Amino acid sequence: MRILILVVYYPPSTTSAAQMMCDLAREFIRQGHEVMVVTPSDSVKGATCSTLEDNVTVVRVKAGNMKSANKILRLWRESRLSANIWNNARDVFKRNPCELIVSYSPTIFFGELVSRLKVLWGCKSYLVHRDMFPQWAVDAGVIREGGLLHRYLKTKEKELYSSADVIGVEAPGNLSYFQAGLRGTSLPAEVLYNWTSSLAVPSGVSGWREKLGLDGKVIFFYGGNIGIAQDLDNIVRLAAGLRDRDDMFFLLMGNGSEEPRLNRMIDRLGLHNIRIVPAVPQEEYLRCLSESDVGLVSLDQRLRSNNMTGKVLSYSLCSKPILASVNPGNDLMDLLRRADAGIACTNGEDGELKSAALLLCSERLARQRMGQNARSLCDTAFSVKAAARQILSHFVSEPSEAKS
What we know:
By secondary structure, the chain is an alpha/beta fold. It has two domains: about 200 residues, Glycogen Phosphorylase B (Rossmann fold); about 170 residues, Glycogen Phosphorylase B (Rossmann fold, 3-Layer(aba) Sandwich), CATH 3.40.50.2000. The strands form two sheets. Strands 3-4-2-1-5-6-7-8 form an eight-stranded mixed beta sheet, sandwiched between helices. Strands 11-10-9-12-13-14 form a six-stranded parallel beta sheet, sandwiched between helices. α4 runs parallel beside α6 and α12 crosses α15. It is globular, with a radius of gyration of 21 Å. The two termini are about 20 Å apart.
């Protein structure tokens, strides 16, 4: 089968979405399929640039930068994604028909392009749905429910849903919300957990401990987007409450719209036990994570969706216990408890979060046990092989057996 993967970020981007979809592309190849990835890029000089990467044809299509753009510019550029990709890569699409489209959300703006390609190729599509936008923006107070912008975004969201034949949400708790959003349609929604390839963690050391003078400290590591939905004020407050503990350090690695403000907050509070550093390539990211002790997850308490954030995969892959502070009712809380792979509490319960951080700092054996359990969870619940076969099961009678 020829498969098109449509995603906003792809390596060398270091986002969890980029790595997940790269792992999926490689697994499709391993199972005997042909794969073409189409992704926007602000670094290509012409309209498109095509390369062969691990037997995957990757077509990068010229588009403006979105990740570091301000909110208004990012919205404009994302809203133009379908049109820009079609206009710049039309000949590529016509020369390379596919039998299945696998698209990734976020963004919500691929619906027009997917629908156009389905007509062109007469194919089916699967939506990997990982972001309840614009609902989370309403929950977080970023946009007004029922306002002009919200109505426009809901229209694009429904357009995306309508372009899919099957939709995979990331956690059981999202099914009820999602099915409510599909009222009046017959599109099947199912749980498709996030995944990782479970490849060996890169050998060697990153040098971050020595570079930052962190030898002997317990490092609490956050890696990923630094945006509104993550509410990393939560972690800054935690660091502030533990400023007198010279054996603990909070290392945040990533980029995003909230980074400048958080850096100003850290400076204003005079904190020396927390630092934000830029994102690095995936292999270096995993080395840095491997030298850390605890993986951090933070989600805004106002969110109503169950975000099984992709960073949990890298933490689990590197056998790190997880300290999570998430929105009420998030499925991650129950998952970590049942697997004994970390500690989760509700965002806003700062005392509980502080107590959990102190426990993980002082109990080395508990960190080790939870880290081993996290790796077991990674190998069982978050397998890329299982994810690929689940997606394909809707479109082929017997998915190809994996090659040796």
